[in-house]
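Private note to self, pasted from the team thread so I don't lose it. Backbone tokens:
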């Protein structure tokens, strides 16, 4: 997919039609081929764009407008339906184009496996990369029922690529015993259950470093985000998620890419999940762009 082949429907609120002027490129990764419970996150990118129109372009938290940031919405990557390996390659190829033009990739999923090819490309440009991962699930399995390409495996692949010591996980409250043992004993900076307080403690150690931020919407309690494929009770509220994005934005880390994944609109007729996802993306756009 070339940048010129933009999504023909709604774009994220405030997006510029001019690629050259953009600092950041938004793109959708409509894939849910490997989910283990409920499919539907492939429809997330489109709906998050559509509901973004309910938002104001001004962030009262960051005291800036979306108009202060130039970003381009490249639309959804046309992925090979039902084919994880080919889809991963297509995502990687697209992100490589974004990075080659010295623009920051900001993706909307889709299942969490989509983060793996993005980080793999970003790592080629930033060999000292660290990742901040906000999620209900560890995503640290080597495989899921024999399948290495699964939404349960992306963080294990990333940890093995960039080094466990460069992975920071927050809000985790679900996973196998083996995953928790690996996280706690293998060098990962692992902060289960909580997000904002340990994130604030960890950020000074990442000062000056390139960081990729990945947010699974199920880090939120299902009361705040029921529209996701694998709900997990006991999560944080939307105010804390926004505060966590603001903490990263206000720190000395260099955000070089980000994504928000696992919004499945069909399971939330109220659309609160899609709306909170759109608001988080707005704050990422304003807060992470330099």
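Design output:
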């Amino acid at each position: 997919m070339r940048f010129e082949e933009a999504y023909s429907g709604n774009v994220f609120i405030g997006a510029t039609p001019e690629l050259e002027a953009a600092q950041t490129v938004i793109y959708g990764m409509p894939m849910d081929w490997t989910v283990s419970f409920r499919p539907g996150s492939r429809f997330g990118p489109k709906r998050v764009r559509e509901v973004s129109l309910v938002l104001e372009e001004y962030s009262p938290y960051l005291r800036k407008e979306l108009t202060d940031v130039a970003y381009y919405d490249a639309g959804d990557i046309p992925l090979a339906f039902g084919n994880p390996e080919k889809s991963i390659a297509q995502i990687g190829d697209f992100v490589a184009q974004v990075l080659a033009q010295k623009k920051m990739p900001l993706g909307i999923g889709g299942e969490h496996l989509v983060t793996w090819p993005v980080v793999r490309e970003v790592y080629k440009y930033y060999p000292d990369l660290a990742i901040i991962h906000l999620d209900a699930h560890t995503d640290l399995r080597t495989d899921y029922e024999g399948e290495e390409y699964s939404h349960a495996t992306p963080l294990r692949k990333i940890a093995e690529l960039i080094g466990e010591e460069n992975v920071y996980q927050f809000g985790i409250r679900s996973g196998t015993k083996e995953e928790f043992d690996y996280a706690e004993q293998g060098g990962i900076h692992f902060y289960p259950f909580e997000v904002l307080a340990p994130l604030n403690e960890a950020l000074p150690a990442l000062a000056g470093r390139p960081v990729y931020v990945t947010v699974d919407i199920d880090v939120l309690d299902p009361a705040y985000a029921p529209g996701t494929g694998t709900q997990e009770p006991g999560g944080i509220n939307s105010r804390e998620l926004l505060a966590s994005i603001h903490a990263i934005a206000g720190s000395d880390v260099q955000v070089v890419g980000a994504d928000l994944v696992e919004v499945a609109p069909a399971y939330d007729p109220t659309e609160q999940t899609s709306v909170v996802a759109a608001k988080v993306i707005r704050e990422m756009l304003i807060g992470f762009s330099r």
